[in-house]
Fold each of these.
Amino acid sequence: MNDTIQPKSSMTKRLSPLLLVPVLASCSAIDRIGHIGEQPELSAITNPQGVPGYQPVTMPMPAPQVAERQPNSLWRAGARTFFKDLRATRVGDIVTITINVNDFGTWQNSTTRTRTTSEDDTLGNFFGLQNKLLPASVKNQLPSLASLSGSTVQTGTGQIARLEQVNLTLAAIITQVLPNGNLVLHGRQELRVDYDIRDLQIAGIIRPEDITPQNTIAYNQIAEARISYGGRGQLMDVQQPRLGAQLLDIIMPF
């Protein structure tokens, strides 16, 4: 009996997340009630490196090379043009990113499985002891003492059609220069329309050589790209299930 009883502390730890859900839901509801009729606030402009959880990017780097100094030369070491290069190269510089996503995908699967089993066992006379040992109700069932049958049919069909199209332009800031010269960028753009905010975020690593003379770069030239396009506001709130429905979706086993 004692082995099946869970300690009180263990049960409390498991139930504590569930107990916090009504508290968090009530706090969120109170905050939303206090802003009824108001437009959602835009996020403050902050330093990406000061955001909690920010970590500098570390990647495999080649051995550093010592640059040759030419103080009396009109040609600057590492320059890609005779005049000053206006493309982003240092921390704090701005580069424009063009995002043109046009993806289409279709998947279709079909599976059918059928299984049928049947088994009949008879026991006729039961070695002549059926009249002495078994009651009449059982004796009448002896010719069909055991009869088993089963049938299983399983059919599954799945189909997915995906169409994504995003055309945006975003300015990002260089936040880090890696030892091999690659640039780490981070950009965020918020647009408020009536009572909804569209939020676009992008981060990744680019090569200076991929930046065009117009100081632009395509999204598909960004390594380790992280692109997020979402929003918040009244329309987004309507599209989200209620907290109770989300909780039931998590804990319900069926």
Amino acid sequence: MTGFEKFQQKVKDGILSYMPEEYQGAMVDIVHVQKNNDQDRVGMTIRKDGQTVAATVYLERYYAEFPEWISEQTVFKTIAEEYVKAQAELSQIKTMADSVKDYDSVKDSIRVQVVNKEANQESLRHCPKKEIEGTDLLAVFRVIFYNNRGKECASALITDAIMEKWDTDVESLYETALTNTVVQAPAQLNSMMSVFFDSEESLAPEEVFREEGLYILSNPQKSNGAATILYPGLLQSIAEATRSSFYILPSSIHEVLLVKEVNGMDTKALQSMVMDINQNEVEPQEVLSNQVFFYDGKEQKISLATSPEETKELAGNMEMASAGYGGMETESMEEMGR
């Protein structure tokens, strides 16, 4: 039994001692939930007698974030407090989720999310999706829920079963979702350097690439910001304003990085950097792609920056490096930004 498995069992056996009185005698379960990139997450549910819907609190972060010298009691108390909050919010969300069956009541809350095609074959098996031409990505659709303060608090992935109830097709769903996403999560451009200095004033397209370095494309929420690459005319407006083509580096599902095309740029080095960061710095469920994309301003289209053969070679090098057979030397984002 691993350390994390022992932690799960301790939580299951002891959490009720830290829950409010009404939870005494409730059923505690450890559950496995499939997230983006087919990642398995371990959660805990507490179901009172007669309760039909129970919140899920994921345990990985508690196991990873609390130092060993923190007492078990402190950890359990924190989990219990956050569970009570999650359950209260879930009750509100459940009421909203019941409205999903009615398309007219939720159509303004549908948004686009961009995810990796290969990594989500299982989790998206029964979901509507649209391939993004020239990439290894898919556009999928989520309904956004808001709390009583008007803030986004949760979302639900739209399934084929839901879409059938709505009597709509993928293209219509995509058009509606993209229109909503552009308005509700507008594109935001920042230079990497400005973020380092805690200044995130948004840039206009013509201000991009004025200086060498990386530029961040996301949204004000910093959530699922990679979808901005789909916004009608956005990439082309950058290309025309800067009179340049550029590379798109998938930083995560929440943002992408843009770097101007210059003579002699090593696209394999760019991809090596993306692959290394995905492997070592990005949460598995937030990885977008190991590819690098190229936006051609003249052709007005996006494509893969490297060939399948080059990608396979780079992946092999990464595996060898992980196994200890020497390694690729990849530049950091700071170095790329110089």
Amino acid sequence: MNWTDERVEKLKKLWSEGLSASQIAAQLGGVSRNAVIGKVHRLCLPGRAKAGGTAAASRTKRPTSAPRAPNYASRVTATTRTITTRPVGAAVMKEEEEMEYVTGQELEPVSNVVVPMSRRLVLTQLTDRTCKWPIGDPMKEEFHFCGNDSPEAAPYCSFHAKLAYQPSGERRRAR
């Protein structure tokens, strides 16, 4: 199979539209998925657009929200959408970005949190019933583990378990 100029142009067009290498191979006919991938690399084509976005949108670093401060109420956020255009080769790509901004923060201390005192255990002193939450820098002399009593078959005490395990809804909002 020869790569004619016409087939190369069709490959570039399909690649920029976001089709997979298998789909492109099927549309071109007489060529394998691996041959398409090899040709794309030899042509140094940019990352292709993905479903629901553009190649640049998938490569741009998304702003991450600041970690939630424990013991305080949730933040107030606002969402804005911007549409920008940029040239990609001979085509112009339209990108829509959704940004979430923190507009204010309601600081409402939670009063029922008790921070336990650490028992300062070293690794050799840990058992199945002690909290294994690390405290400090492992490369320093004062490094230790919490060591408080943990529930059966749990690695952390109840306080550290609240820090370690977040409800799935909060994890989705943090992204």
Amino acid sequence: MSQPTIPIDDAALVRARTAVGDFELTVCSDGTYLLDGGAMFGVVPKTMWQRRVAADAENRIVLGLNSVVVRTGRHTVLIETGIGNKLSPKMQQIFQNQALLPASLAAAGTSPDEVDIVVNTHLHFDHCGWNTTLHPDGSVTPTFPNARYFAHAGEVAHGHLQLDRDRVSYLSPNYDPLIASGQMTLLDDAGIRANPSLCPGISVELFPGHTAQMMGIHIGPPSPTESRPAAASAHPHACYIGDLIPTSHHLDPTWVMGYDLDPLRCIEERKRFYSRAIPEQWLVLFPHDHPTPMACVALSDKGKPVVAAKK
């Protein structure tokens, strides 16, 4: 079985840096992993998707595990925590993941102790694995001891059902210990609609389809009265869109995944997202695009969403 070769240096560990208002954003990485290309592109024929991304002899493609550190001046926020170190040997052999997030955070100058907010868009194992750390004695402890964690209550309830369709995606040690200790706050639809803000400048919005309660994370200055002018700001607004748009190769509204629980809803949610993200020139943060972890989106001459040319 072939394995991807990823150099373990700062360029591999810290994927990108930018500014949104006066917030500092750093894209860190838990490394890469392998998934079946057909599953990643659903009903899109391989003759089409392989023009965008290469597959190996076993039809696997390399995907990134992007986490984003947001320094707001008041808080250090971490969005997503990768696969972590709790996969079984069999699962590690399948996915070939490297568990690099602790090294990536160190390369970015971020200590786990200083992270005070952790947000999971949903609770699939490749998005919340380093919420907790597995130790040699079998114990599991919070990776970010001083953080308040946020996830959707519906994700926990769905994971506990252990349905045949997606039970492999939910590993309870990634979240149940945090719920039991009170360190994880569980959000619900009504609460999100009433108050989507987690802290000044960080808010959540429901984008269902991949899972029923998947959230996007909005990043932007909270208000003119609360934020300082940022002359060097690269972007006015950013959104970590989760698996609604896993990579820049999935920008076409109909290029949804076999993993999506409701692919038709994904198509409509992408269109709804683009109705604001494109005209307002949002920076889009992709969870699984290793070479292109973030980009603005524009419409092509044919009216298709594409990565916008850099200005």
